[in-house]
Design a protein that fits this description.
528 residues; mainly beta; 25-stranded mixed sheet; 36 strands; 12% helix
């Protein structure tokens, strides 16, 4: 036998020997049910040495409703590396991944409907974590053609050793989403949270509705939330006294592709897109709306536009080119002051902004695409004044359960530019120079004053009448920083105070000239 044939046979033998390494990984099939949970067709074991076992847990934290105090959740615990396909329906159940530090775990959600009324419904407690933005060892894959419902609550810390889980889906390690199925998350607190590490979305259709931030990466200065592909609609529930950003990171946010719509709470001082270390838009269709503008990196690879309205609006917002051809259209479900958006069609040049009008095209969750016609509504102008940009930079303090002031029914959120002008001449040092500090603070809750105060907390009715006259009482509440999200208000408290946006034009104009270095447009009102 020739040496060439010998080498060929050796190569073939080596290939045959390595085939098993490339074979499809065997899946563990978990089927949920309110009657019985099965693993690979067998009733789940309670043996904690198994790779999947069942346990029970009674949540006793203070947020558990009285009628659920005695409820015991069924906890499906995964302890080993592998792929786990989960389907079926279960109430008062929870999936916990508690694998080894080197174990990669893939959860394939294939038509699940899981509800946990007293805690997070899915928890990533331990798995391999490369700690690199865009990489992850814990994967949630949305099976093709599947619709998955996750309804979850949250927990509180009962001791220093406890972990506080805020989201319906919550992870202590970097988490990645893949696949093409649909995930619907309904959360009473946060929607999907990664407490340490990073979150990456590489595909799927998401509808996340929550009582606080729908998506949150919370490791200060580190966590990166990256969206590469997929469709994401995240909205904070418009409940009275609520708050929350549309999408939030205590580190960074990077948009590389997909369609992403992020709506903050409509009456709180929160942002549609909020990050402590910076947000970048490199591709995709991105929409963010709220009542605070958090800066987007001007070095983003894709152009974006930020609109600050003089009065919050829930109308159809349409941005056209100078020939009135629409490039962006969104019909907002609630009133917002700050609206940021980006599309691949945006280029440097002149644009116009309209409210209302008659539009035809494909519409999903308020976003219009493939627009076939548009009859313009009210033409808007910008500039001619300044705008107060709330927040930024520093993380907001925990308010210890303090709620923002409720707005009278039917009252709209005042534009922050108008609010700042109303208080432009206020000098608290001058007003309070003769005040007796002991008398001023008598009977006051000092913990509350330190975390966020209202002018009504520190001034007498006579002083308010003298210095502020007929000023709306709701604005007096906002001025001092009362209400999470205002970060110390105009006084520049723990949230870093306001940063000023220069007027986008010295003289009001209806032409919005967008360039790489000029993306924000202030004091938008109806054109004269």
């Amino acid at each position: 036998m020739s040496s060439i044939l010998k080498k060929l046979l050796i190569c073939l033998l080596c290939l045959c020997m390595t085939v098993p390494a490339f074979a499809a990984e065997e899946e563990t099939v978990i089927v949920l049910s309110d009657d019985a949970i099965t693993v690979n067709g067998e009733v789940i074991t309670q043996d904690e040495s198994a790779s999947v076992y069942l346990a029970y847990k009674n949540e006793t934290h203070e947020d558990v409703p009285k009628d659920l105090k005695d409820l015991s959740n069924r906890v499906i615990t995964i302890t080993a590396a592998g792929t786990y396909r989960v389907s079926g329906t279960a109430t008062d159940a929870q999936i916990v991944v508690r694998a080894g530090e080197k174990d990669r775990v893939r959860l394939i959600l294939d038509g699940i409907d899981i509800t946990c009324r007293t805690a997070s419904a899915i928890i990533g407690e331990k798995a391999y974590d490369p700690r690199v933005p865009g990489e992850y060892g814990l994967t949630i894959e949305l099976a093709e053609g599947s619709v998955n419902n996750v309804t979850g609550s949250h927990t509180k810390k009962l001791s220093d050793d406890d972990v506080k889980y805020d989201g319906a889906i919550d992870s202590l390690v970097s988490l990645g989403f893949e696949g093409s199925g649909k995930l619907i998350v309904d959360a009473d607190n946060e929607g999907i949270e990664v407490k340490y590490g990073h979150m990456t979305i590489n595909g799927g259709v998401f509808e996340v509705s929550s009582g606080d931030d729908p998506l949150n990466v919370s490791e200060d200065g580190v966590g990166t939330l990256t969206v590469n592909d997929g469709y994401l609609y995240s909205a904070v529930k418009p409940e009275k006294g609520g708050e929350g950003d549309g999408i939030d990171s205590n580190g960074y946010i990077i948009f590389n592709g997909g369609t992403i719509i992020n709506l903050a709470h409509p009456t709180s001082g929160d942002s549609g897109i909020d990050s402590d270390m910076g947000s970048s838009i490199n591709g995709g269709i991105v929409v963010g709306a709220g009542n605070m503008y958090d800066p987007i990196d001007e070095n983003s690879n894709q152009l974006f536009m930020m609109l600050e309205f003089g009065q919050s609006t829930d109308d159809l917002v349409v941005v056209t080119d100078e020939h009135d051809v629409p490039v962006f259209a969104y019909d907002f479900p609630h009133s917002y002051t700050y609206i940021a958006f980006s599309t691949p069609e945006l280029t440097e040049g002149a644009y116009r902004v309209y409210l209302g009008g008659e539009i035809a095209g494909e519409q999903t969750n308020g976003l219009y695409t493939s627009i076939t016609s548009y009859v313009p509504g009210t033409r808007m102008q910008h500039g001619g004044g300044t705008a107060a940009q709330m927040g930024g930079g520093m993380p907001r303090p925990d308010m210890g359960g303090q709620q923002p002031p409720e707005r009278p029914e039917g009252m709209q959120m005042p534009g922050f530019g108008a609010m700042r002008q109303a208080f432009a001449n206020v000098d608290l040092n001058e007003i309070l120079k003769d005040a007796d500090l002991n008398e001023l603070l008598a009977g006051k809750d000092l913990n509350q004053l330190l975390t966020g105060f209202s002018l009504t907390d520190i001034l007498t009715d006579e002083q308010i009448a003298e210095y502020f006259g007929d000023t709306d009482p709701a604005m007096l509440e906002v001025f001092g920083g009362r209400g999470r999200g205002f970060g110390g208000g105009f006084g520049g408290g723990m949230g870093g105070g306001p940063r000023m946006l220069e007027s986008s034009a010295e003289v009001a104009t209806d032409l919005f000239m967008l360039t790489k270095n000029s993306t924000g447009f202030t004091a938008i009102i109806a054109a004269e």
